[in-house]
Write a structure and sequence with these properties.
The protein has about 210 residues and is of the alpha+beta class. It has one domain (about 5-55, about 70-200): Nuclear Transport Factor 2, Chain: A. About 35% of the residues lie in helices and about 25% in strands. The chain is built from five helices and five strands; from the N terminus they run ααβαααββββ. A hairpin with a 2-residue loop joins β4 (about 175-190) and β5 (about 190-200). α1 (about 5-30) packs across α2. The relative contact order is 0.18. The model is unreliable at about 30-40 and about 40-60 (pLDDT under 50).
C-alpha cells in the first residue's frame, strides 16, 4: 500500500476512534449546565448567558493496556471538553430569542463565544425583513437547548461538531417544539475556543 493511501486509512481509523471517544467524553458536558440561548427567525424573552464552564484540568491517563488516543490528536482531553462546552453554550444561545428584542440584543448573548464576523452575519439574518416581521407578527418567543451528537472533523486548530438544537417556541398561534441539526466549527487551542462557523448539518461546513 503506497504512503498516501496508508495515511488516508490511518486518518480514517483515528477519526472513527475519535468520534466514539468524543461521544463518551463530551456527553456529560453537552447535557449539563444548559441555559437559555437564542436563534434567528423566532423569538424569546432575552436571557443572560453566563460564563462558559471552566475547562477540565489535565488529562486522564489511559488504563493499563489501552492506547492513549490523545498522543495522535492535535488537542488534549481538557481541550476537547472546553471546545464542547463552548459549542453547547453557543447552540443554547443561538436557539433562544424573543420577538421583543433587537438583533444586537440577540447577538449580545453570542458574542462571548463567537467570532465577531459570524455574529454580524447572524444578526443580519435575524433582522431580515421577512424573518423579523414573521417573528413579531406572531409574537414568537423561543427557548433553546443544545446537545452534541458527535465530532465530524478536526484539525490542528479546529474542531467541528454535529449539534442538535431543540426549541420550544411560543406564539399567538400556539406552542410548538422543533429540533434542528447543525454543523458547528470552533477554532483556537486547548485553552481558548470560539465558534467561527455554523451551518445546517445537511449542508455541511464550507
Amino acid at each position: 500500500m503506497d504512503s498516501p493511501t496508508w495515511r488516508r486509512v490511518t486518518f480514517a481509523a483515528i477519526v472513527c476512534v475519535l468520534v466514539a471517544l468524543g461521544a463518551y467524553l463530551i456527553g456529560p458536558v453537552a447535557h449539563r449546565d444548559r441555559q437559555p440561548g437564542r436563534e434567528p427567525g423566532t423569538a424569546g424573552t432575552p436571557r443572560p448567558v453566563t460564563s462558559p464552564p471552566s475547562p477540565v484540568a489535565g488529562t486522564t491517563p489511559p488504563q493499563s493496556g489501552q492506547p492513549d488516543i490523545y498522543q495522535w490528536l492535535p488537542f488534549t482531553q481538557s481541550g476537547l471538553a472546553a471546545a464542547a462546552a463552548i459549542v453547547t453554550r453557543f447552540g443554547t444561545a443561538y436557539g433562544t430569542y424573543s420577538y421583543a428584542e433587537s438583533a444586537s440584543a440577540y447577538g449580545a448573548s453570542l458574542r462571548p463565544v463567537t467570532s465577531a464576523s459570524l455574529v454580524d452575519q447572524i444578526e443580519a439574518a435575524y433582522a431580515a425583513p421577512g424573518v423579523a416581521s414573521a417573528r413579531s407578527g406572531t409574537k414568537q418567543v423561543a427557548v433553546g437547548t443544545a446537545t452534541i451528537d458527535s465530532i465530524s472533523a478536526f484539525g490542528p486548530t479546529s474542531l467541528t461538531f454535529y449539534l442538535q438544537v431543540t426549541q420550544r417556541v411560543t406564539a399567538t398561534t400556539g406552542t410548538t417544539q422543533q429540533s434542528t441539526r447543525y454543523s458547528v466549527t470552533v477554532t483556537g487551542d486547548s485553552a481558548s475556543w470560539q465558534v467561527t462557523d455554523v451551518e445546517l448539518a445537511s449542508v455541511g461546513n464550507s
